[in-house]
Amino acid sequence: MLDCETAYPSVSRLQLYTYLHEQGIQGQMLAVIKSLTKSLKVRVLHLHIPDDYVDIERRLAEGSALSPRLCAILLGSLLRKLRENFPKAQCTGAQWIGALAYVDDLCLCADSAEELNKMITVAQHWAEDHRAKINYGEGKSEIIVLNETSADKTSQGQTPWIVKARFPYPHNKEVREVDHFKYLGFTLDSKLDMNKQCTDIIKKIKIATSKVLKYARAFKQQSAMHYRQQVTLTIWKAIVHVHSTTNSILLTSTQQVQRVQDALDKSLAECMGLSDSPNLQTALNADCGLLPMRLQQAIELCSLHAKLLVVDQNRPDAQIHKTLISALLIRTASLTERMRCARITLNAVHLWGVPPTSPNTRHRVNRVLALPQPFHQIMSLKTLIKTRKNEPTTLACTQQRRTLLQLALVPGNSPSCPIQQYITVTLSDLHRKKLNTPAPYPRTSSEIPTLPLLRARCQNLTNLRSNLYNEKDTVLPYHGIPCLRCNPTALIDQGPLLIHTHHPVDNIHHLATSCVTTQDQREQLGQQFEAIMVELGINTRECAKVSEETKTSLTLASDPSAEWQLRTKTIIQWREYAMPHCAVFCYQDPRSPTTIAHQHRNTKVKHETYTRTVIYAPSSPKRLVHTLQGSETALSCKDLCARPSPVHNTRSCVCMIQTLAN
After folding, report:
1. How far apart are CA 126 and CA 120, in angstroms?
2. 265 φ, ψ (degrees, to nearest 5)
3. pLDDT computed for residue 8 by the predictor
């Protein structure tokens, strides 16, 4: 791996024009290129220096669209020279892979140490002839030996890596040998197990997480009236999630994929303002529209497979795929084998036929992918590749939906774990077409905070004992977690043997349907739903027919049931009208059941409700905190809005509930 200190500034224009003339770029075309590259001037702004412009006789312009292509033409002379001197550095076939160049990075490949030393010397001499400089410092130009066994190390010993330089005088330069180095954004190690790459991805995720938290705090301080969790999610996907999708095909084992998945789950929960919980990640990823890491990797592998089938089979990437990446490796499976496994994972075997361990070279384009079309309707290669990438994404969404629905309840049974409770509540949202997009409720309003709904749907409310349920702990079953608000004596009746389990489970379904502490809020929410149904022309009898699970689903801002047979426009209006009321209900903060249990000392039970509501009015930035205790009820969304109608339109909203940390 060789690195040039300067790329565009080191280009000699006279030599560049000579190479352009040799490649057939002559006449008016060459004259235009000369006029575009010669008009470079610079001046120094200083009191004691004349501000005259100075012509720059050497270098290419930084930021010019023409500079990368011209630099590649100049670098092509080095590649041709290496190919002439070392013709045996090639795959099994006609494709020469002795050197791989990208701007100022040059990767040299050889089978022996002697040949590699000679190749580096040739590159050094070319740099001296073209007034370029190769940086042999630490972390710049380094050598790595791939798939070297212990026997090879013992037999060869310490290999000296020496470069013979000629300028300014004949001398030797030493190149360091390392176990890993970074090339084009990914870390390549000598064993090709990619453990170092996995560790670097996790480090990048942690660093990016701290940046997202800083941005989120800044946005909350600057625009508290219009801040949403969707903003944090968008920033998180752009800064954090991109590290897991970039070069994900390089991860070679399921353990590495799981390590990255755990780092992503922890980062997302922290950025979205949720506490760490064993029941959180599956629900949080589904609501935020994130597919599991294994499916993301399968999508990238299938997309690469489709691209290799579509491109011209005489191109270098197709030739390398045919003869190199399909070969068996010492410690890991070949890339072609992993592509085949990814197709099986996504059930995509029917899309493109047999995996191309030996691509068909008789046709320029695979006929399975591109059927003959009229000349004016021929799809471009870029569009065809993009189309083939959408198909694995759709299959991945289907696979994830099937996996979640397999965990759903059997009709007539009660949830036995929090994930079953989540699937029961959000069943209508899980049937959306694209599971790689967020649920509808975060994208509905720009003025109502969605954090209370996110915590309730993901069962991350710390005042619900079932949210702390751990499947690995077999001592306390899910059905044995009673609500201490309704039955403070349940903790005593429960006993060490868990004999009495007839109390209602303290989960979000119980809080939204039958808990005594939220009875007034439930009645008020039901009246608001009926008013919305009248506003939208929905038969109010439908609300009376729905089951308790459907009521919980509507309370947590899920879409109406498909049995209502509503049009898409009506469903969108329902989201806009109902979501603010659902956010108000989910913001109720009953006192912790542990506190109630301590207050119960063989005396009369006193039911108390503690509700915190914070209001921000545009006309008055003063913060008003209302603390309601005892028999008082919480302020409704109708009381918080200037519009007297029970139907709450977010566009006419003049207040906002700001969530306080639990």
Report:
1. 10
2. -60, -45
3. 81
